[in-house]
Every structure is written in C-alpha cells, then in structure tokens.
Amino acid sequence: MGLEISAVHVRRSALIEADPQRVWQEFESSPKISAWLNQGHVLHRLEPEPGGAVDFSVDIDGTEVHFGGRVVVLEPGRELSMAINWESEEMAWPVDLYWTFRLTSHPLGTLVELFHHGFDVLGDTAAQEVEGYEAGWSNNHLTTLREIVLGS
Question: How many structural domains compose the chain?
C-alpha cells in the first residue's frame, strides 16, 4: 500500500470538496495532469501505469532542463508516485528521489497531498537540497487542481 514517505520531505496539500474518485479523474491522463501541474514545470510525457515513463522539464535561467523517470506506484483513487532524477549529470542526484500525490478521503471531501521526498539518502547535502525545494514548491498546482475539479 503506497510508497513510504521519507522523514525529510517537502509537503503541500489542499482539501478539495469532492470525493476521491472525482479528484482522481484529473490524474488519469497526461493532458488532464498537465492542466493543473504545468505551472513552473512542463509535463512532456507520463504513462499512467506502473513502470510508465515520466518526462518533465523546467526553465532554469533560460535553459530547458529535463527530469523524469518512472511511475513506481499507481493506486487509482489513492496514489501516484514517481521516481525522478535530472537528466543533466551536473544536476543529477546519486539516486532517484520521489514525487508522491496522495488522495485521502475526508469528511469535507478529499485531502490531496504532494510530497517531494527521498532527500534522506543524500547524506550531508539533504538539508540544503530540501531547503531549496521547499522554497521552490508553491501550492498553485493543487489550488488549480481544486479549481478544475470544482468547476466541472
């Protein structure tokens, strides 16, 4: 059941006033995911199946830099987890890190959590890495997801 979230992580969340099955509909294809996730990131490819390829890019100082990997957990209505790493050897971590989107039923709807995790294995650089990503993640992805779910 799901990927274990490491102790050192970035977490963002949103409570969406809809049931998990409705929210999960926005995770079922690359175009649907792109509609809410493509804010600071660009999703080029996501095969929503275990082992499926994932390819994103981000603009860093005017240069398109790719990162991605594979889907490691796909539990419809509950979780999508991806192993990710940078394509650039200069930026790559020594091991993959993870993005996990977790949906939990709540009396008011669905709690959607985004975790960027796995930093623990980076040793001496873990604190600096998580601090940098903590500053970089906003909640705009999840608020856009809420707007899409509630607007339909």
Answer: 1
Q: Is residue 75 part of a domain?
A: yes
Instruction: Give the whole-angstrom CA distance, residue 130 versus residue 115.
Output: 11
Q: 94-123, pLDDT tens digit by residue?
A: 999 999 999 999 999 999 999 999 999 999
Q: What are phi and psi of 99, to 5 degrees?
A: -115, 130
Closest by CA position to 83, among listed 45, 112, 55: 55
Token duo for residue 10: 């970035």
What's the whole-model pTM score?
0.93
What distances in angstroms separate CA 150 from CA 12, 15, 28, 125, one per listed residue?
Answer: 19, 12, 17, 40
E strand map for the chain: 9-16, 42-46, 53-60, 63-75, 79-86, 97-106, 109-117
What is the CATH classification number for the domain harbouring 14? 3.30.530.20
What are 48-57's pLDDT values in tens digits? 899 999 999 9
CA atoms within 13 A on the CB side of 14: 19
